[in-house]
Specification:
By secondary structure, the chain is mainly beta. It has one helix and eleven strands. Strands 3, 4, 7, 8 and 9 form a five-stranded antiparallel sheet that branches. The protein has a three-stranded antiparallel sheet with strand order 6-1-10. Strands 5-2-11 form a three-stranded mixed sheet, with no helix packed on it.
């Protein structure tokens, strides 16, 4: 019997997953940068619109995933909203994936907030199942 179309795809996906499971590998999602939310405010507590937000790996972080640096912009009310960044991998079972420690800071009009540390929770989501990681950084205050 020769499988065609969708049935062939389902068959080969099943064979691939069985082979991966037999050797201790499973497809999984690991979070590199969690979803971030928060606000950028000035010293009087007023929102700062258009502030540049930088997310970077803390020097000396023990996470295996290398993040580098990402920048994005706060909205008109100073709100920070960024979706989770993740990557697919083949995860060896058993095995631990340690997330990096990140630093989040805001810059506007030549001044910079104190960096806030954000930890990426360790672990993986097998087959990509589960909720994305979300972190509220609170208020990033510009002097």
């Amino acid at each position: 019997m020769k499988l065609k179309g969708f049935a062939a795809i389902v068959y080969w996906v099943g064979v691939s997953l069985a082979a991966c499971g037999a050797c201790g590998c499973m497809p999984a999602v690991v979070t590199t940068v969690p979803a971030l939310s928060g606000r950028v405010v000035n010293s009087q507590g007023r929102p700062v619109s258009g502030a540049t937000i930088e997310v970077s790996e803390k020097p000396g972080s023990q996470g295996r995933a290398r993040v580098g640096s990402r920048t994005f912009t706060a909205d008109a009310e100073g709100r920070i909203e960024r979706p989770e960044e993740r990557k697919w991998m083949l995860h060896m079972i058993p095995g631990d994936v340690y997330g990096p420690t990140l630093q989040v800071k805001a810059t506007a009009n030549g001044v910079e907030s104190v960096p806030r540390e954000v930890s990426v929770a360790p672990g993986v989501r097998l087959f990509g199942l589960g909720s994305p990681q979300r972190v509220d950084v609170g208020e990033l205050r510009l002097p």
